[in-house]
Design brief:
With 149 residues, the chain is an alpha+beta fold. The protein is built from 2 helices and 4 strands; from the N terminus they run ααββββ. Strand 2 (104-114) and strand 3 form a beta hairpin.
Length: 149
């Protein structure tokens, strides 16, 4: 009788219960690890986008400081508004290739359109391009410079 009472009064977890609990815990850890990986990838993309934004803003400010008739603010291929988004060395009005920012190389292009909004203005579109994960990424900023006077 004592032996039977000892088996029925046992407290604790069975091996099956422990295996199920460990499986649920492992699935939770895998989900947490995937979330961490996604977060790291998102932060890396944000960092590269911030670097590209910095390069575009720097170039934009340099171009804004130039005189209206400066040779860097000329539509060299006369394609006007249609060429504002050209982002290759062959098609852009101007380009600076392999500009290093952080650990990446970026290409900077800028295109000019004369008198596109109103007379005596130059619309300038600065484009920064880089490769990431086998895809070409671009970021652009635009400003309009008017003839002073």
């Amino acid at each position: 009788m004592k032996m039977r009472q000892m088996f029925t009064d046992q407290k604790g977890f069975s091996l099956l219960e422990i295996l199920i609990a460990m499986s649920i815990f492992a699935v939770g850890l895998l989900a947490l690890a995937q979330m961490q990986i996604t977060s790291i990838q998102g932060n890396a993309f944000s960092s590269r986008t911030t670097d590209a934004t910095t390069l575009a803003q720097d170039r934009l400010e340099q171009l804004m400081a130039l005189a209206f008739a400066d040779p860097s603010l000329v539509d060299t291929d006369a394609d006007g508004d249609a060429g504002l988004n050209d982002a290759t060395a062959a098609t852009a009005d101007f380009s600076l290739l392999d500009q290093v920012q952080g650990t990446r190389n970026y290409d900077i292009f800028w295109n000019v359109s004369l008198n596109s909004l109103i007379n005596n203005t130059r619309t300038v579109n600065v484009i920064v391009a880089w490769s990431e994960g086998g895809r070409q990424r671009t970021l652009s900023m635009q400003f309009v410079k008017a003839l002073a006077g």
